[in-house]
Amino acid sequence: MNIGIIDADLIGRKKHRFPNLACMKLSSFHKRLGDEVELLLDYKALRKYDKVYISKVFTDTAIPDKITTKKNVEYGGTGFFFDKAASLPNEIEHIMPDYDLYRDWATSEIENGLPKAQFKYYLNASIGFTTRGCFRKCKFCVNQNSTGVKIHSPLNEFVDDEYHYICLLDDNILGYPKAKDIWCQLEATGKNFEYKQGMDFRLLNEDKIRMITESKGLNRRALIFAFDDIDDKELIVRNLELYRKYNNRFTRFYVLGGFDKTEKYDNSFWEKDIRDIFERIKILMEYGCIPYFMRYEKWKDSPYRGTYSNLNRWCNYPRWFTKMSYRELQWACARWAKREISSEVRHMQLIEEKFPDIAKKYFDLKYETTCRFDVVG
After folding, report:
1. pTM here?
2. How many angstroms separate the CA atoms of 30 and 161, rounded?
3. What is the DSSP letter of 87?
4. Strands of 141-208, DSSP E
5. Which CATH architecture has domain 1-108?
6. Mean pLDDT across the stretch 271-287?
7. How many Å apart are CA 92 and CA 74, to the nearest integer?
């Protein structure tokens, strides 16, 4: 059979730089059957393939109309079905991924001038899950139907000896009771590793912090936690105090904005959400941590959507976040655009007009004066 595989996110997202694990497993399965497999970079000429698989992770990745209705097309993934996406058949789920699937494409991109570092996950990383699932049931997450964290795959199921790096996609590794056993297995490989998903900072205790701090293989530059809900403030602050007793390294946190647990999305929500986002950023500043702002899809419907763009620009560029206050960056954007008042400044002034207490408390905070700790890179 001739098999075509489409990573829809690769085609539909300009800055996507991570392989689709399901695509690599499907490729490996069909190659073992003796089939010819090709990674397709567009949706043209699909009829020449006996079967075409389309997978996507992100719900907002666009695909051509009616493409999924073609008789030779099968499709799946969270991008299509979110929390109701079907699992791969067991014989495909537990197969060594085909790490060669993206090789020709990645090599071509590098030859055309793109930095090799952008393709590290395609060319030098083993990728997989040691555990799956989470018990949190967050409504914004694809794991909201999960009942807990369970063991999924041994390392030898997806770790290729030729690759020097391991990327783990576990949903909530710290929620697994025997996480330390897995961590020891990772250390024993002698390879560097990272957990791609944000770790659950609320689950940290002294033993887990020491496990993270003393790790020889963990890529600390890739270490990232999450502070998604202001209701967790007390627990997050308590763990930050404990964390900083053992760890003075640069640490990042996902900060979610634009998600309403009540699903009302009224005016009162948008005010509270902006206030809560700034408060979480302030707390992270105090402990020498860097926020990575994540916008839930509803942010586009906010009357203050420009503020969400401003926050994204400020938080997600550490060189700006650590040197400029929120206010300073918006005026800097105006200077760079050679305008007296830019759209960034207008969005900032709207919040100052509507919610002056937010502006007064947060707009002039600076990392270098708010941080209470000496943090190293």
Report:
1. 0.91
2. 22
3. P
4. 150-151, 165-168, 192-195
5. 3-Layer(aba) Sandwich (3.40)
6. 98
7. 15
